[in-house]
Design goal:
Layout (H helix, E strand, L loop, with lengths): L22 H11 L1 H19 L6 H26 L9 H17 L3 H28 L5 H20 L9 H8 L1 E3 L2 E2 H19 L1 H11 L1 H6 L4 H27 L11 H10 L11 H20 L4 H26 L1
Antiparallel strand pairs: 1-2
Helix pairs in contact: 2-13, 3-8, 3-11, 3-12, 3-13, 4-5, 4-6, 4-11, 5-6, 5-11, 7-11, 8-9, 9-11, 12-13, 12-14
Length: 344
């Protein structure tokens, strides 16, 4: 009996060439991954353009002045980084109010302080008040699940009203000499002490974010709070840390603003609020959380400051400049909304 040889089924491997992304997508991917580099390039471009329009715009002295102006915005943008990175669609609308409050209280407390110890206690008292405010906000958002925008907006109004009632609407005392010197004096060349202090704080904050467990936990919670919870992280406590840190950083910004301005005024930091949000997004953060940096926020703050100065050189009034700032924030929000819809 003859049997025909069995033939085993054969498989043929077919290689399907992967479609290479187009040049536009590759450029977009590169820009998304190097937003800080793009921000630096934009700053250089604006300085060159300003130098062409008005000689001296890109001089060392003017750049030093621009950095000093951007210093306070940088700190307020860094305070937003804590909240934005931790996710939960969080933005802190109270940081500017905290900064204004801190400037007013610091001027009042320092005017009554006696010696270095008294000044240290006065500043410590201001920071403690800011810490309590941040803790209340964080508890409400993380544990009571009040939406961040609602809670921080309400807290901002509460702070503004409380400060107005406490001061009876009058302008408090001016900054002490040493604080005014810190805000205005030059350390070397065109660089002021204010810029150096803020630079040190930014570097220290960046190291804390990247090198410590508590700092990295902000990124983990912001990127995926479900996975972070499974890994044992305490989501609510971490977000409480974010809002507390944001408030204390805002208070530091307010104290330095007092030194830079020389005296305190009610609501003196209010104009920084929307700019602080825009600076964070320009610096590479995402409203959805998990991405952001202090260095990027600083670059965004400098970029917005240089842009505003260039618009002033062009002869545009305050209303037009504010409209441009609002348009920038609107465009950034629309871009984020589109990216979010594509990811989902």
């Amino acid at each position: 009996m003859s049997t025909s040889p069995s033939t085993a089924p054969t498989t043929e491997t077919v290689s399907i060439p992967l479609e290479r992304p187009g040049a536009g997508r590759r450029v977009k991917a590169y820009l998304d991954g190097h937003r800080s580099l793009v921000g630096v390039a934009a700053i250089v471009l604006l300085l060159v353009l300003g130098g062409i329009i008005r000689p001296g715009f890109a001089s060392a002295d003017n750049i030093g002045s621009l950095l000093a102006i951007a210093a306070i915005l940088t700190l307020l943008a860094c305070s937003q980084v804590f909240v934005v990175v931790s996710g939960g669609e969080g933005i802190d609308l109270s940081v500017a109010a905290v900064a204004s409050m801190s400037a007013v209280l610091a001027s009042m407390f320092l005017s009554r302080a006696d010696g270095a110890l008294g000044s240290a206690l006065a500043i410590g008292g201001v920071l403690l008040i800011a810490l309590v405010i941040g803790a209340v906000t964080g508890l409400a958002v993380a544990f009571a699940r009040i939406p961040p925008l609602v809670m921080t907006l309400g807290m901002a109004q509460l702070i503004a009203g409380a400060v107005f009632a406490y001061t009876a609407g009058s302008a408090p005392s001016s900054a002490p000499g040493w604080l005014a010197e810190l805000g205005a004096a030059r350390a070397f060349g065109p660089v002021r002490w204010l810029v150096l202090v803020v630079a040190v704080l930014v570097v220290a904050g960046e190291l804390w974010l990247r090198r410590t467990r508590s700092g990295r936990s902000l990124f983990l919670v912001g990127a995926n709070d479900g996975a972070a919870r499974l890994s044992g992280l305490r989501i609510r406590s971490i977000r409480l840390l974010a809002y507390t840190s944001a408030s204390v950083t805002g208070a530091v910004a307010g104290i330095l603003l007092l030194g830079s301005a020389g005296s305190a005024q009610l609501g003196m930091a209010d104009g920084y609020l929307l700019l602080s949000i825009a600076a964070v997004i320009i610096g590479g953060a995402r409203f959805s959380g998990g991405e952001g940096s202090f260095a990027g926020a600083a670059i965004g703050a400098v970029l917005l400051t240089v842009l505003d100065s260039l618009l002033l050189v062009l002869g545009l009034g305050p209303g037009t400049r504010i409209a441009v700032q609002g348009a920038i924030l609107l465009v950034l929000t629309l871009v984020y909304a589109r990216e979010r819809s594509l990811r989902s």
